[in-house]
Design goal:
Layout: H1 2-17, H2 28-162, H3 165-182
Length: about 180
């Protein structure tokens, strides 16, 4: 406190020697100019301050709304991004599952085709066996018929060569006699 009183007493002593309006660089017209400027500013503020204040407030509210809308859009975009990233993560798993399913289906189809092929081969073997058996029977029948025809032909040839006209007459008489005995 003593220091403050000492400083103030020195300022008062200096002012007594040099009045403030005479201080170099501190002219009175600068203060008057400042006073006029402040008065004009206050007048303009009272006259136009409210519309400007309202315009600034409206602009501030519009900026706040835009910021809020931008935040909502950002949050929505981040949500969509998270959803897409989740889909991509699931997509890898789904692709793997689809590959496994396709492999399993291909293996099942391969087994089914193999079983169908084996069944078809068995049917074809059975059919071929039946056809071979049938062809064998037909060939045996044909062979028997051919053998019988050849036997008959050979017998006829032998009989024609060996039997003469008198043997033929004697056989005819004997056949007639036997026929007569069988049918009285």
């Amino acid at each position: 406190m003593f220091l403050t009183i000492l400083t103030l007493s020195q300022i008062v002593a200096f002012e007594a020697e040099n009045p403030w309006w005479n201080y170099p660089g501190l002219e009175l017209w600068k203060f008057v100019n400042l006073l006029v400027f402040v008065a004009a500013a206050l007048y303009l503020h009272r006259r136009f301050g409210r519309p400007i204040r309202e315009a600034l407030r409206a602009r501030s509210e519009a900026i706040k709304r835009e910021l809020l809308r931008a935040r909502e859009e950002r949050d929505a975009a981040l949500g969509k991004l998270a959803e897409v990233e989740e889909r991509f993560a699931r997509l890898d798993a789904e692709v793997g599952a689809l590959k496994e399913k396709a492999k399993a289906e291909a293996e099942e189809e391969k087994k089914r085709i193999r079983a169908a092929t084996e069944d078809e081969i068995a049917k074809l073997r059975e059919q071929a066996k039946r056809e071979i058996d049938s062809a064998g029977k037909t060939a045996r029948v044909e062979l028997r018929r051919f053998a019988a025809q050849e036997s008959v032909r050979l017998a006829e040839d032998i009989l024609e060569r060996e039997i003469g006209p008198e043997d033929d007459a004697r056989l005819t008489v004997r056949n007639v006699e036997e026929f007569g005995r069988v049918h009285p």
